[in-house]
Amino acid sequence: MAGPVTTERRGKIAVIVVDNPPVNALSQAVRQGLDEAVAAAQAEDGVQALVVAGAGRTFIAGADIREFGKPPQPPALPEVINRIEAGAKPVIVALHGTALGGGLEVALGCHYRVALPGARVGLPEVSLGLIPGAGGTQRTPRLIGAAQAVELITSGRHVGAEEALALGLVDEIAEEDDPVAAGVAFAETVLAEGRPVRRSGEAEDKIAADRGNATLFADARKALETKARGLFSPFKCVDAVEAAVTLPFAEGLKRERALFLECMDSPQRAGLIHAFFAEREVRKIPEAKAEPREIAAVGVIGGGTMGAGIAVALMTAGLPVVLVERDAESLARGRANVEGILDGGVKRGKMTAEARDALLASKLTGALDYEALAEVDLAIEAVFEDMAVKKQVFTQLDAALKPDAILASNTSYLDVDEIAAVTARPQDVIGLHFFSPAHVMRLLEVVAAAKTAPEVVAGGFALAKRLGKVAVRAGVCDGFIGNRILSVYRRQADIMVEDGASPYAIDAALLDFGFAMGPYAVADLAGLDIGWANRKRLAPTRDPKERYVEIADRICERGWFGQKTGRGFYLYPEGARRGEPDPEVEAIIAEARAKKGIAPRDFTAEEIVRRYLAAMINEGARVVAEGIALRPLDVDVTLLYGYGFPRWRGGPMKYADLRGLDRVLADVRAYQAEDPASWQPARLLVDLVEGGESFDSLNRV
Fold this sequence. Notes:
Radius of gyration: 28 Å
Strand content: 5-15%
Helix content: 40-55%
CATH superfamily of the largest domain: 2-enoyl-CoA Hydratase, Chain A, domain 1
Distance between the termini: 34 Å
Shape: globular
Number of domains: 3
Low-confidence stretches: none
Number of helices: 30
Mean pLDDT: 95
CATH architecture of the largest domain: Alpha-Beta Complex
Strand order of the largest sheet: 12-11-10-13-14-15-16-17
CATH topology of the largest domain: 2-enoyl-CoA Hydratase, Chain A, domain 1
Largest sheet: 8 strands, mixed
Number of strands: 19
């Protein structure tokens, strides 16, 4: 049986092809095959040049993720690339599809690089908590300069063929559409012109110029303090590129390897690798084998902030949208909301004015009645979060939509089973919980009700993929996965505020931990009226023994709903996006404490984070035990993509594993001793600790 690397002769040229479907990943067999093929061609009489190319739709897209977490098997990639570079005969690499991570490092070790027009290259290791570890940090600055190398490597971004040529990463963009033909044509030119072997590791011009720039690396690190707050590997990337400038090539490679191993040992690498795999594992759902319902046209009911965002997400994915509102004035506002979002995209350079106009003309239709939805395949209601209103909408949708159309609710909390029960087709009803702003946020909770058909759930996942979103399957309960857990950890934050912590100190502590925003800034952004309405809805069923904090209600009673009203927990003078502390809110808090006779105490940042995360993890365990989330990793993905949990910590359940479940349980029990009504250890958490297991053990079931 042929291996994943083959060689054929084209006259004086040896053509080495990597064929390891689906993306030619650098498995052990590929590394060994490439090493042996290059060595054999270099030694073969009659061969004057070598071409390396990939079969199928791409060159080498990177490392083999199946080898992650396993002991490395020889030959090591750095050694393979060093031997390619050391060869006496010119090696030309032809790039098509993607050459990422180790794939680009292989290309950098070759003597010449030719790219097909659609090729994309990059060094995205930073997204996994690593640095390029096979010479990428040493060869790249020698080709494009240290400043450009730092930007490319610390961002992890992919660049197209034209930019790669302009930077100096590739030597030519081929006219051929076949990588082997392009590589052979370039090799023939090299031989005809007598071009020498040209080793990236020996290039000096760029880094010689960089040696005179005293502030280059200090400036790079300063910029990362904001852009890469809390992260480990971007700074190691800068250290490695600096080594390329300050050390001989061989010493720089050793320094790169040492820094790579530091990253491998970092908990951040473990968290980021977990997040990487979890994003892929959430696709594995009970309905995965069902044929998804086809969705070619969509109706959106409600043109408010959420409905407009959903409409834009659909339109930019190429789906025609019928926007339904109750009257002409509301419809005009809804269309203006859609136009406003698209205008923002034009201002930020995300699209042209012509593209915006074309979208509005071809993909958006307004309507005042449900009859306009007769031919849509999916209708998504995005109306006010009130059960009676939702039921009224679904009754009308049931009558108007064609058979097999999907009826979806964007509800954040409400019972999808109860909504489905007002229709004659509960099998077609699903929750599609978008997160605000819906055209930006990547999470989509696909809520499967008791009678939802498998092909409808599969359709929700297919839609998420088309929209570029990450779908998580959720069961029905108040708040599903994310908002249910949010309600618990946010309640603990409110209790800490009532007991003496400032909301601004809580936000600051969680920002330092790595959250994108603190809970009070998030509440202001989302709108305090949403949570207020939900609290009023739940008031009749609230346990009288439960400790209830009224501070947010007092703020809402003043009409302060967050950014949209100019003040909430924070003040937003003149429409500012970043809030500032509000002395009047602090007075409201002090009054609430006095009313209950609470003597405020101090909370350290560590206390705030531990209590906040213990509540999150404990409730996450309940959500998994009840089957609302299929696995702990589904909780992780939900919190990562919808609630700003720091990706480099892997998600709350992964964080708990890394910290130690016994320590988390000890925290919960300590808080239970203080406040038994608010804290009860989740049975699953107790069982895992007693059994010596982790949350991750449940991901592998």
